[in-house]
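Priority: medium. Attachment 1 of 2:
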């Protein structure tokens, strides 16, 4: 047998194995990636909340205390925690101011026994009701401005954007109401003046920011303010009547 005939089986064997090896190589495909659910999913997991809390910068909080309009520089996808912090501080501050103001009045007008008797009789004197009133006040105002803004404005906003902008702007006012509450034990007039001024400025700021945020045209701004304030006051009246 010649060398040529002796090498033919090896050649055929090699030709039979090489296509199989070529087919086996592409079989190692990468595993499919999990679908992306988006930053604004149905809810925030505990790990995402803890990571957001860890990412809170004191410098941004100080900027919000100095100027609530700096909330316009926040990015809702990663800075939403500032809106949550501001909203919580605002509600707690409003509750603290009203509660301290009432306690200061009772201390000035009634004795210790009379104070306890009045506190037990008046159901509206419970601190929990003041907290609910402050909470509903902020939620109803921001909700009304958002719904009407998405209806009459040129730009629609989701709730994460609204919470980030409007919620973070409440940080300063919450701090002012806390100071107003402490001042009530020294001067009721000064406490009322500072707290009422903070309420008025806060209302004006939220309305102005909502107009720019939703890009409400000039010819619609008057009706926007009228509708928003009318609906807000009506809803707040019903909530106050139910709670108190």
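Attachment 2 of 2:
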């Amino acid at each position: 047998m010649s060398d040529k005939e002796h090498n033919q089986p090896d050649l055929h064997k090699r030709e039979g194995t090489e296509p199989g090896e070529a087919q086996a190589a592409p079989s190692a495909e990468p595993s499919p990636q999990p679908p992306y659910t988006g930053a604004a999913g149905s809810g925030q997991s505990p790990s995402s909340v803890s990571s957001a809390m860890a990412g809170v910068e004191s410098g941004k909080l100080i900027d919000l205390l100095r100027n609530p309009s700096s909330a316009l520089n926040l990015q809702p996808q990663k800075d939403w925690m500032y809106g949550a912090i501001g909203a919580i501080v605002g509600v707690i501050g409003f509750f603290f101011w009203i509660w301290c103001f009432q306690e200061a009045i009772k201390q000035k007008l009634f004795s210790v026994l009379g104070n306890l008797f009045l506190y037990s009789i008046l159901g509206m004197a419970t601190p929990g009701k003041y907290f609910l009133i402050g909470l509903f006040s902020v939620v109803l105002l921001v909700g009304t401005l958002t719904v009407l803004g998405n209806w009459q404005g040129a730009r629609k906003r989701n709730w994460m954007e609204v919470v980030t902008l409007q919620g973070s702007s409440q940080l300063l006012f919450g701090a002012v109401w806390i100071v107003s509450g402490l001042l009530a034990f020294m001067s009721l007039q000064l406490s009322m003046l500072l707290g009422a001024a903070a309420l008025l400025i806060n209302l004006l700021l939220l309305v102005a920011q909502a107009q720019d945020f939703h890009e409400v045209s000039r010819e619609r701004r008057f009706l926007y303010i009228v509708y928003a304030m009318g609906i807000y006051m009506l809803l707040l009246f019903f909530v106050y009547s139910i709670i108190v």
